[in-house]
């Protein structure tokens, strides 16, 4: 289907917007009036610029507060419209968005609204322009899409149709099924925006929190399916007002918008995700020699070295960690640089990622190395899709030189990687949600805001349906941003036993937890007093599931968490994160 985007959705000047929108592969744009007003180019020059870039101007918007007004106001409104029609002729745009009247002077009279919109459509036709009438969710009298459609039907003019906007429909909780009764040729335009579910004034919600399809909580696929069943053949057009997108890189936002429409199309076509990951194959940490001791203390053993790169494989149970002493180790110390995912179909996963504009990263590979393709997550972390062939690259076994890890306990109680938590740049938080959902096939779980001593941490968790892969993306807001910590959570069957051993053998590795935390914990639950002694944190869900976890101190950007899930607990101990953050800040 044809794909468009409103210029208001991205940052920059109109010229910058057009360029980035074209580069992202869109077919057309909605010109948002303010972008034109502030633009030094004439409408003819904008038209030529768009044409050179291969972009059609699919809509000009918005025209406000037109219909259902007293006669004297109508005269002024028609004069205003005539001017806009002339601008549109110069732009080469033939569809004008008229949104329902919000002014206190508007009259609650559908027949009057229909009569005046018909008049507007007649005048517009003289300029080759058609009118798309949209119900704003906060319109004075018209705020439901079916109400706008009834007025359009009553006006009965071939140049007047309706514009459907997913936000205005879904934010009011309207059932989109009613769209299917509207004749497709009377749906002149479809605007798509998702949004997180927020209990707030709908106008503020719309102006600041819209996001691309797949980034929020609305069922965009269901609504779009209804529009298509009605017989609509026009563009899928993104119209997003978002405080963060307004500041972010225009190229990147445009590309992300395109990814959201491709993912939406794929879900409409019933394209199922070819390769939802079945587990973590490995986590790779850039490190110049500081992590071996910590891993060894946690019970990992050095299990091999890469045949052609300065990379070591450390393993315990099904948990595998690669320590890379190569180019990526930064002056900030250890950092999580890559994640390997067990994929039932690595080739299919890579192809799917490519279809969603996440191309394979160029990599250096020795001829004898296993073929292993990576794509970039929004924060730059490399994501590898693996079968088991990569392990052969480490087949030469542990290096001959003795060092940390040699002779470590074969089993320190860790069984596998439970989850990986990455810190996302603020501008790419929504992008990350869409990436993990569409490219990796993970499902969104909880979304939280956590207090940090110096700001606020927003956190979103995503997981494979069976919990085999769990990812958490965090963004630090306000002052918390100085410490972009990442962590690797390792599952164990008995975290208390592991904690006892660490307490005895490596007490300095454990993050100390304040006594006040345990005073509160013991007030809420009957927990083993030993948790306090060991620094193990505790959480319980509403279904009786329990979570026991502890943290190591931080090395560079990275720390480790040891977790034990009991009774189907699906969360991440989020309530304890502020305690952890406060201790980490104090020690940083
Ligand atoms: Mg709209
Ligand atoms: Mg965690």
From TrEMBL:
PROSITE patterns the UniProt entry points to: VOC
Keyword Flavoprotein recorded: no
Gene Ontology BP annotations: 3,4-dihydroxybenzoate biosynthetic process
Keywords (A to Z) from UniProt: Dioxygenase, Lyase, Metal-binding, Oxidoreductase
UniProt: a divalent metal cation binding residues: 134, 165, 191, 239
InterPro entries recorded: DSD (IPR043700), Glyas_Bleomycin-R_OHBP_Dase (IPR029068), Glyas_Fos-R_dOase_dom (IPR004360), IolE/XylAMocC-like (IPR050312), VOC_core (IPR037523), Xyl_isomerase-like_sf (IPR036237), Xyl_isomerase-like_TIM-brl (IPR013022)
Top-level taxon in the UniProt lineage: Bacteria
Residues annotated to bind Mg(2+): 419, 487, 561
Catalyzed reaction equations: 3-dehydroshikimate = 3,4-dihydroxybenzoate + H2O
Domain annotation VOC: ranges: 416-550
Cofactors, names only: a divalent metal cation
Function: Catalyzes the conversion of 3-dehydroshikimate to protocatechuate (3,4-dihydroxybenzoate), a common intermediate of quinate and shikimate degradation pathways.
Official protein name in the record: 3-dehydroshikimate dehydratase
Source organism of this protein record: Nonomuraea thailandensis
Lineage: Bacteria, Bacillati, Actinomycetota, Actinomycetes, Streptosporangiales
């Amino acid at each position: 289907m044809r794909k468009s985007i409103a210029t208001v959705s991205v940052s920059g000047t109109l010229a910058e917007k057009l360029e980035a929108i074209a580069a992202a592969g869109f077919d057309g744009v909605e010109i948002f009036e303010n972008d034109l007003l502030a633009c030094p180019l004439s409408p003819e020059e904008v038209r030529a610029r768009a044409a050179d870039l291969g972009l059609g101007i699919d809509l000009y918007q918005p025209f406000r507060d037109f219909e259902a007004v007293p006669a004297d106001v109508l005269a002024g409104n028609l004069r205003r419209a005539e001017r806009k029609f002339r601008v549109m002729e110069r732009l080469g745009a033939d569809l004008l968005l008229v949104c329902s009247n919000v002014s206190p002077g508007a009259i609650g009279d559908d027949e009057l609204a229909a009569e005046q919109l018909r008049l507007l459509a007649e005048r517009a036709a003289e300029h080759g322009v058609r009118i798309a009438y949209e119900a704003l969710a906060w319109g004075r009298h018209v705020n439901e899409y079916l109400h706008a459609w009834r007025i359009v039907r009553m006006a009965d003019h071939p140049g007047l149709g309706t514009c459907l906007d997913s936000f205005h429909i879904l934010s009011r909780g309207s059932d989109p099924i009613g769209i299917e009764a509207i004749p497709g040729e009377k749906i002149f335009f479809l605007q798509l925006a998702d949004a997180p579910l927020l209990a707030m004034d709908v106008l503020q919600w719309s102006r600041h929190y819209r996001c691309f399809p797949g980034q929020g909580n609305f069922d965009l696929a269901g609504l779009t399916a209804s529009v298509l069943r009605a017989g609509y053949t026009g563009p899928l057009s993104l119209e997003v007002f978002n405080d963060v997108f307004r500041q972010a890189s225009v190229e990147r936002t445009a590309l992300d918008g395109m990814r959201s429409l491709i993912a939406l199309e794929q879900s409409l076509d019933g394209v199922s995700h070819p390769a939802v990951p079945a587990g973590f194959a490995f986590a790779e940490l850039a490190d110049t020699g500081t992590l071996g001791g910590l891993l060894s203390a946690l019970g990992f053993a050095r299990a091999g070295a890469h045949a052609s790169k300065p990379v070591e494989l450390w393993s315990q149970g099904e948990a595998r960690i690669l320590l890379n002493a190569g180019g990526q180790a930064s002056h900030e110390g250890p950092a999580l640089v890559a994640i390997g995912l067990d994929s039932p179909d690595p080739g299919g996963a890579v192809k799917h990622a490519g279809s969603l504009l996440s191309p394979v990263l160029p990599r250096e590979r020795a001829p004898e190395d296993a073929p292993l393709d990576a794509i970039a997550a929004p924060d730059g972390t490399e994501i590898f899709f693996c079968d088991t062939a990569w392990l052969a690259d480490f087949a030469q076994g542990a290096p001959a030189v003795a060092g940390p890890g040699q002779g470590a306990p074969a089993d320190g109680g860790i069984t596998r990687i439970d989850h990986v938590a990455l810190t996302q740049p603020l501008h790419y938080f929504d992008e990350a949600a869409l990436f993990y959902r569409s490219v990796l096939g993970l499902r969104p779980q909880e979304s939280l805001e956590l207090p940090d001593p110096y700001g606020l941490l927003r956190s979103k968790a995503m997981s494979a349906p069976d919990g085999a892969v769990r990812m958490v993306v965090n963004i630090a807001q306000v002052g918390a941003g100085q410490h972009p910590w990442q962590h690797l959570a390792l599952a164990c069957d008995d975290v208390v036993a592991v904690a006892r051993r660490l307490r005895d053998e490596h007490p300095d590795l454990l993050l100390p937890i304040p006594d006040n935390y345990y005073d509160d914990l013991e007030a809420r639950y009957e927990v083993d007093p030993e948790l306090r002694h060991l620094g193990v944190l505790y959480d319980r869900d509403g279904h009786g599931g329990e979570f026991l976890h502890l943290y190591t101190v931080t090395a560079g950007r990275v720390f480790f968490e040891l977790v034990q899930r009991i009774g189907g607990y699906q969360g991440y101990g989020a309530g304890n994160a502020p305690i952890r953050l406060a201790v980490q800040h104090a020690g940083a």
